[in-house]
Specification:
By secondary structure, the protein is α/β, with parallel strands linked by helices. It has twelve helices and 16 strands. The protein has helices at residues 4-18, 55-62, 88-95, 114-121, 132-137, 140-148, 178-189, 198-204, 252-260, 278-287, 299-307, 336-341, and strands spanning 32-37, 40-46, 71-76, 99-104, 125-128, 152-160, 164-166, 193-197, 220-224, 242-246, 264-267, 292-295, 313-319, 329-330, 349-357, 360-367. The strands form three sheets. A nine-stranded mixed beta sheet has the order 11-10-9-8-12-6-13-16-15, sandwiched between helices. Strand 3 (71-76), helix 3 and strand 4 (99-104) form a beta-alpha-beta unit. Helix 3 packs parallel to helix 4.
């Protein structure tokens, strides 16, 4: 029987494999698996791409010898139902694997524990909880989506040292360094959708797609445009999958023109300020299977997500630059009346990481 350190070593190897799927598996979770026999790894696999074979199947297929009596270390509970692929539990049993060591159980209430019960019933020994927290943490967005049915929301901002995203004339290029901008593309690739407000689209005319690295698919682009002011020649509309969230104020003629170009237009309820209700938007995106939204809006869009308690994570790039000025643009904006109503100063977060990216400082924080 393997001891704790041995189990953690092999699970650690499975975790290294799992994170290789960071850009291409979502909205599915990242999963890694190693098969061990005679105290050594004889096969490896990870979930490479959404809709394709799972980690356990890839590990089993990579084996050149018999798996009878072997153990498999897998970062997430093996699936037990037919979806885009057959159940992994069936393949494990058929291969003759005698023991399954699991890092994290499936957080989907509809499936949690079912795979383990099927394996146990078939006479396979099951062990759980090895490096549990690490195995759960790599799939933070998936875990929230499975439990809440609404997307995990990451906010991102590039700002000067004094918290500005543009000067009074709207100039913002380039606050962050090239290395920080490349990192932003990597962060986009980890999400299902990239979201921005119409002011950003009008002012910067961005593409919002992924460049600087190769990915199997580009993210869905979500534009929050309450009055449908978007220019039909905007670069962002060149993307393959675009969603525009608007309200009843939108022109029906313009909606028809956009839909003719296979751009999906969502007519959503208005909040008290007449803008797209963000809670309704997130609920709708969740229903569409979007599990992680990466928000790159301007100060008001970021401020709306923060002040309404709709954000999970905040990633910022601080540049060693001071913009100053009286009317330069703040990175997070909401009406002052909201602060007046608060008993305490501000909205608290906790830092998860701080590191240097080129000349910039990148921080990652979660909301309490």
């Amino acid at each position: 029987m393997a001891d704790r350190k041995t189990d953690e070593f092999f699970m650690g190897e499975a975790l290294k494999l799992a994170v290789k799927g960071i850009y291409d598996t979502h909205p599915n979770p990242m999963v890694g698996a190693v098969i061990v026999k005679g105290g050594r790894i004889i096969a490896k696999g990870y979930h490479r791409e959404y809709g394709k074979a799972h980690a356990e199947i890839n590990a089993i297929k990579s084996s050149k010898g018999s798996l009878k009596g072997a153990s498999i270390y897998v970062t997430l509970e093996p699936c037990s139902t037919f979806g885009k692929t057959p159940p992994c539990t069936e393949a494990i049993i058929k291969a003759g694997i005698k023991k399954v060591i699991v890092g994290a159980t499936d957080c989907n209430p509809a499936h949690s524990g079912k795979g383990l019960k099927i394996l146990t019933k078939a006479g396979v020994e099951v062990q759980t909880g090895v490096l549990k927290k690490s195995c759960e943490d790599i799939n933070f967005a998936f875990n929230k989506f499975m439990k809440k049915k609404t997307p995990y929301v990451t906010l991102k901002v590039s700002q000067s040292f004094d918290g500005r995203i543009a000067d009074f004339m709207g100039r913002s290029r380039w606050i962050s360094s090239l290395k920080s901008r490349i990192k932003t593309h990597e962060l986009r690739a980890e999400a299902d959708a990239v979201l921005a407000g119409i002011e950003t689209i009008i002012k910067d005319n961005p593409l919002l797609n992924i460049r600087h690295l190769k990915v199997k698919k580009q993210p869905i682009i979500v534009i929050v445009d309450s009055s449908l002011r978007i220019n039909l020649k905007a670069k962002v509309l060149e993307n393959e999958r675009v969603i525009i969230a608007t309200t009843q104020k939108a022109s029906k003629i313009k909606i028809a023109k956009l839909e003719k170009r296979n751009i999906k237009v969502l007519i959503l309820t208005k909040d008290k300020n007449g803008r797209v209700d963000l809670k309704s938007l997130l609920k709708k995106l969740g229903q569409m299977g979007i599990g992680h939204v990466f928000v790159e809006g301007g100060g008001r869009v970021l401020g709306s997500f923060v002040s309404q308690g709709l954000a999970d994570r905040f990633i910022g790039f601080f540049s060693p630059l001071i913009i100053g000025g009286e009317k330069s643009k703040n990175s997070v904006v909401w009406p002052d009346i909201l602060n007046k109503r608060r008993k305490e100063l501000g909205i608290k977060m906790v830092f998860k990481s701080i590191k240097q990216i080129g000349p910039d400082i990148m921080f990652e924080a979660e909301f309490l």
